[in-house]
Amino acid sequence: MTPLFFEHDFLTLIPELFFLMTCLILLGFGLSIPSEGGESLRVYLWLSLFSLGYAFALLIHNPIEHAFAFSQSLIIDEFTLFFKALLLFGSFGTLVISKNYLIKEKMYSFEYILFLLFSTLSMLLMISSYDFISLFLTIEFQTLCFYVLAASKRTSEFSTEAGIKYFLLGAFSSGILLFGCSLIYGFTGMTNFGDLGLLLTGIALPQIYELSSFPASGLFLGILFLAVGFLFKVTAAPFHMWAPDVYEGAPTSTTAFFSIVPKIALLAVFLRVFFHSFYDLLESWQNILLLCSALSMIVGSFAALAQQRIKRLLAYSSIGHVGYMLLGFSCASLEGIESVCIYLVIYVLMSLNVFALVLALNSVNSRLRYVSDFGMLSVSHPVLAFTFACTLFSMAGIPPLAGFCSKFYVFFAALGSGLYAVAILGVLTSVISCFYYIRLIKIMYFERPSRWLTYEVLDLEKAGVLGLTLFCILFFFLYPSPLFLSAHKVALCLCV
Amino acid sequence: MISEYLFYFFSSLALASAILVIRARNPVHSVLFLILVFCNAAGLLILQNLDFFAMIFLVVYVGAIAVLFLFVVMMLHIKVAEIHENVLRYLPVGGFIGLIFVFEVLLVVENDLIPYAGWHSGIFSLTTAESISYLVSGLPFLLDPTRSFREYIHDFQTFFSFGSSGEASLSVNELCSSEMMKKVSEVFAQASYTEWTRVLEQTTNVEAIGQVLYTYYAYFFIVASLILLIAMMGAIALTLQRTNQVRRQEVFEQNLREYTKTLQKVRVQGEVGS
Amino acid sequence: MIKKKMLAMLSLLLTLPILGAGVLFFLPAQAHVLHRQISLLISCLTFLLTCVLWIQFDNSSSEFQYVETFSWLSNQNISFSLGIDGISLFFLVLTGFLVPVCLLVGWVSVQDFVKEYCIAFLILESFMYAVFCILDLLLFYVFFESVLLPMFLIIGVWGSRERKIRAAYQFFLYTLIGSVLMLLAILFIYFQTGTTDLQILYATEFSEYRQLLLWCAFFASFAVKVPMVPVHIWLPEAHVEAPTAGSVILAGILLKLGTYGFLRFSIPLFPDASAYFAPFVYTLSVLGIMYASCTTLRQIDLKKMIAYSSVAHMGFVTLGLFSLNLQGIEGSLLLMLSHGFVASALFLCVGVLYDRHKTRLVKYYGGLVHVMPIFSLCFLVFTLGNLSLPGTSSFVGEFLLLAGCFQTNTFMTTLAATGMVLGAAYSLWLYNRVVFGNFKLEFLYSFADVNRREFFIFLPFAFAVLWMGVSPDVFLNPMHVSVATVLERM
Alpha helix (H) ranges present in C60-207? Predict the structure, then answer.
């Protein structure tokens, strides 16, 4: 530990510090804008988008590429750069598509946007975490922001209920996570990921195992609780109960944010935890993650078949996608990490597209609630229907769209690690999930809606996001090398 | 000895109070039992030689949080009868989950976690229980700082007589004796050893925390402060009503008012006698 | 010399339809005539390109020709390599031939979403070219699957009845379930060898146990596509519900994807497993021939009859493929080609009838020779092609095929040959009922013979069928060396 505190630490954290300063300034600014009216909200929103953009620029051009900050509680390297960039991109996209929704729904409180920004800040710090205390604090920070975001639509009881459910289960899972962290601290005496990795080096080798009674079973228990807390937060089955209810009750822009952004940060930091610290105790966490991945894939495909509401369907489909990401995670190999990175990027793009669509078709008079409301979209909004069809095919994993590339890489990583059964389960559930995606397309193209909805004109921001993501989804297949190569670099950085 | 009894007293009282928090009929009684739990936890912390944390427990938990609970409980009219619905309904699933937790705890508790089980392998391996009792034995030091640390280690030996399981070689007491050290340093004449037991400094809890919290762990401190900020903002964002019915004062408008212009006398042409 | 100048022909072939689709995309939606003309022009251009490929093809070289490589994933050694040999050459020509026909068929009958119709067919054409040209296992799988997407839309949007959605679903999901197992097998091969390049994979040896497993996975996918008997149910549904052009493409090309996959991938990559499973495939094929032929006799819907007869013919094809000798494989290739012409032409005939009378049930038709003589003549030519009359292309294919199979397994061949009798039965009976006899005035009373567009669609088909029947050498010559190369691996 360097005796000269803070000398270089602030330099390494310039993007986060800038973002924190802008959030605090925006907090002060928000108090001075009038709270009744869309105009000031528009200004506020563009300011926050600018701050996100500048933070992104600062992140990309940070001259410090590898550092430990604040006495080894934070780490900066290419892994964090990749995930932070993806996170900022996801937040930016979500905020862009939410703009019209907030104004139309008269959710004029500026705190909504501010909580979005603060949760982004917390996730930026979470990705850089290198210590259990830092991990727990930033997870608490992020989930606290999310509780408020879920409950922020004051005129809707649904929203309040979603907030309460999220709060109860989130607090419970944070408690389990903290218990796991404290058990690990209790049995090893250290909370730093790197130190834990050094301590547990070669611990599974028989020579060392016989000599001492370490690792105590308390350590395994701690890792178990840690994994369970993580799986709760990332909405993996069998801990996914809260996700459909919360996703459905929360206002749609919040659902978009929940669905797109937190998984990036959580997967990043837990990749680091499990690969830096507990890789030698592989048996203790690989089976849990494999089991949950298999269950998530099954739940995500079967449960969504029966859904009639669009937001619950999207919640279950995101549970399925998390299942595939966990499959890549539990491969515990270089290709596994690469597949998680690639899947995350493509998942963010597809989710942005889907939620931009859902928000576009959602108008105040006639809310888009049921799946059958999509009927005859091909006649009223042909281009939008085509976009949705492409995104749904991509989510189902049909070549030659982007979703296929990500899925094939996950299965390749799984086969490479010898996880044959789960890979076969994965492909079969992929076909089953295809069924309900195609049902949506069928409804769009061939069925009449049960109740007629009025649509509004698509605004420019959503059109931009839809176009950009559709372009990426359609033509990713032609030139996938940049993403694959950067994922490879990121994975090498994590493992080496 | 006393500390052992105190430990049992505080922990059993804390457990009983915790169960009564859930089972009490009157919600105010629940909160009062919760306060009792906190006080007992503070006592346990003092037994662990953590004076600062115990006081912080009392100030924050009892003084702020429990008082807030009391406010809320007293302001909301909670019907007493609704609380105790059919608890037995949850017994199968809840009992099953509870049993899982108990099973997991039993998985973890091994021989070396149970105190007085004797020394295990290794010379300097202080297991968890022993280190706890080691710390507990420092309690008399708080009362009488004039005694040297070595004497306390001697007390430690006399208080808790560990039955050695045969292979305990050097005891801590022997190692700390300077005669032994002189013999060792005679053998290894070139090396100079630091006698760590003489070099240890005593600081208070608050000083120790302060020395690390604002230096090595400053980042955690700042993040915690951000969490508090968010909590405050969240509470305001969720509950503040900016309606017309809330009466407010617009201080600047009021100050700008010219009082000479606020009241005017107006002559009204009215009918006589109306 | 000339070959060097036209070296980028395959990529040109692949991108030209996509460029055409892009051009169409920007045209206004009301300009139907313009859409049709431009798409017809582009598809005829690509057909000319495939003919040039055929002419410039070198019959004597066993390597892949017109090879081009683009890197797709450089660090994974997966590259976009294109190339053709004698086996894939004719499928390219067939595709180039059929797509303009499809567009011409929809000239009058498709009135809504004309732009999307043309774009869908052009994109489908590009994907089909890609399937036959690509020399990389994973990318073959990608295009093999992506053919489903435009086909799903074609069946679902321009199909004729309400049942079309169910048919589109069945088509999509059946084919998808089989294929995902193939994806796992491909990834497994990639993991073992580190590359998916076909030319390298041809040189690798897999252990026998692995070959068996991988062959089964590949079989699951190709068998659904072919279709072989237990998993053939999607085909009659899809054919019946699809528009005429959809049926033409489905019968003409999409069924051949499965057998092409067998020939290009299953047999050369897993020779021991192919030999091991050959009796199994024989059994399924003969069952298919028998069952499908018998079922055809029972059908009342014209399109279903031709669909089931397609199943029977594809049973012959797989029989020939797994005979694993030169005549068998060449015969099956020729039968594939001829079936591509004959079955498509039969669907066109049915489409002609459907356009006029909006029904496909045999009960309503009879005595058409009196009022539609030219149609009867065309229908006759293709019916004779269907029952493999000597002089038509199917005869050459079947004869070679059965000759090859006879060397391997005489009993199965005998059974299959009796299937030919059944084929004659249903074809002639159908023709008899529809064309001869008295026409049924109580159902149909206004008739029109084939118009000029339809006649000019039928003419090339008839020409091709007769040409292949009379002088098959032109078609067989390029195949010899390629098929011999495949058989060398055995």
Answer: 86-109, 114-133, 137-146, 148-158, 164-193, 198-201
